[in-house]
Amino acid sequence: MSINEQESIAISYKPLEEIGYPYPTFEDPATLYEKVGQVGEGTYGKVYKARNCKTGQLMALKRIRMKTEKEGFPITAMREIKLLQKLKHERIVRLQEILVSKGSVYMVLEYMDHDLSGILGHPEFRFEPAHTKSLTKQILQGLAYLHQMGILHRDMKGSNLLVNNKGELKIADFGLARIFQKNRAGDYTNRVITLWYRPPELLLGATSYDTSVDIWGVGCIMMEFFIGKPIFNGTDEISQLDTIYQVMGTPTKDIWPSIEELPWYELVRPKEHYENVFRDTYKNTLTPGALILAEALLSMDPKNRPTAAEALEFDYFKTEEPEALLPANLLNIADDWHDFESKQRRRLQAI
Ligand code: ADP
Catalytic one among 113, 115, 155, 339? Predict the structure, then answer.
């Protein structure tokens, strides 16, 4: 695609002054980005793959649409920008700069070729066991850093875990992330985290929670690597809980002492009692080390889940073969695989 005015994004400084945001380091204001294509559909706008016309470098431009000037700058976007500016780690997507063009603000992020949801939706591509180990490890390394920085991600899922062709994974999308006070569970909303990756305490109405909500999500994603589909895929909150109980067993006071204190415990008390069948169901699909780690990550009582740093010390990573290996063979899959493109391809196939 050649550079053309409409497809390029010009920079102006004014709206950033209006939102009173301290400037990050700007490049030469004459810099233009050429849009290569759309790679994502975000909550407040589209995400584009774009090329920096001066350096030729590929970047992701996350557009933050402001419908009217009166509505102002979305608070979630502001939060995400502020958090990302503080975060510098190889497992966290890097925010390079902020641009403004025609009433929209763009976050310029390092470009990642795929996201996990997109790759898992690929019709042929499959990860080797050493690759899934590496990806799980990288997610936990990113989370360990976030949690140590006092940040809860609160939206762990495949489409927020970006992977480049070198097999490096980075956590993205901090729109729902929150700063928490260490050693104190905060009072938050429980309407966070996409249903399939939402832990039982949130489904039971907890508004006070901690880093263990992100750990449950890692357990779900790790299982998805092994079984090729989401492990708990309910259609609403009640069926999500039921799906979880059918595998992990209906929680009782014995295994989760504080469960009765949760706001919706009585309201959604299950009629049937299920036994835990996790080990039996997956003992032939997961290696022994993977089974122990996944079971711990998916502990019903959040207090029993390991922290990200503790999870990295499990035998699965430390002693069990094979050793973790970056899935660098991603270089071989043609095209970029993000959740957005994956869904588009499926739609086209259905026609
Ligand atoms: P939202 O916060 O609005 O949900 P996300 O940050 O999750 O938006 O981005 C939506 C999608 O765009 C992601 O699932 C991913 O596929 C794609 N995307 C986001 N950031 C990048 C990036 N840095 N590189 C490549 N693709 C990205």
Answer: 155
